[in-house]
Amino acid sequence: MTQSEDVVPPRDPAPGWGQSLAAGAAGIALLHVENAHAGTGSWETAHQWIRAMTREPVSATPSSSGLYRGAPAVAFTLHAAGQSAYATALCTLDEHIAAITRHRLHKAHERIDHGQLPTRREFDLISGLTGIGAALLHREKHTDLLKDVLTYLVRLTEPVNTDGDVLPGWWCCDTPGGQPEGSWPGGYANLGLAHGIAGPLTLLATAARRGIAVVGQSEAMDQICSWLERWRCGADRTAWWPGLLSRAEWQDQTVRQPGPQRPSWCYGTPGLARAQQLAALALADPRRQKRAEQALAGCLNDDKQLAQLRDASVCHGWAGLLQATWRTAADATDGELASRLPILRARLSRHLDEHGQPADPGLLEGIAGLRLVQQALDNDTTLVTRWDACLLLGD
């Protein structure tokens, strides 16, 4: 029996674990909330995990709170539950989330005003304003605050002149996570959905498709898409994108990555293809939409790319590939992507038979996320909680 199905741990394994949507009780509770809504699990189990999520004071510190941690993460799961018992808690969390958002927007605009480059944590999905915007959009309220986030993302696309180079406004001044300072001289551009520019693109597109727009939104989407097209390697079914671009690559206008990376949700072709498909749908651009869908179809038929998947997780494994493909197929112009889903599902099952379940109980890298994806594909129906809004895959 897995930890996500078993009794709640008597204490948090690590500080802040309960409020983590990625690895902790918030993500595990989301699985049980979806089960309870779908009639495949009990509300008592869901409530137990929600209590575990909130047994420690909820963090609302602007520097450490985002979609995947603290007040926004807890609110995301409570909103998914849709229970009147949590209404008061949600109202309190909303006040903190509004304060967090305004503080971070102020800091971001101040940084832009001074002509400085951002860190990825300012704008990305996991820790930044894109993630907070995704949480606001998921709530289907706070429209004015969401528009403020969209306005910031539009401004993020404005070029910045730095050390003689005109760089995109999302060029990061720090280093990718876990890498030593100075290992990326001149900074880098991150293309991925989890940590890069594909996240802002997807939020802008999804909001537009729901009728929420600000000045310059369409132009910003077009600019990001054009930038991604510039750095696309290959064409049609052989297309792929680098995960990161160095300053030297930018100056040389040459990608040094030797070939496609693993086909993951977080950085690979599945997430990037979905982002560009949603943007194309928002911009009513069928040519761009077809190119995005062809890129994913080519990826799914490339055994060399699929062989790079080493685990079953949502973040960088088979589950994320399946969820991204399932969502992209639902909006595709033909049935090719949908026809690949049974094959991919069989590959996932084979992987689980050979390697077993993930050791982690959480959503991004563990069993909770895997189960959510398996249930979505088993039922092939609209997700009750729209839980994959936290992945920016739904529409």
Automatic annotation (TrEMBL):
Any one Pfam family match given in the protein's UniProt record, by short name: LANC_like
Protein's name according to its UniProt entry: Lanthionine synthetase C family protein
Species: Kibdelosporangium philippinense
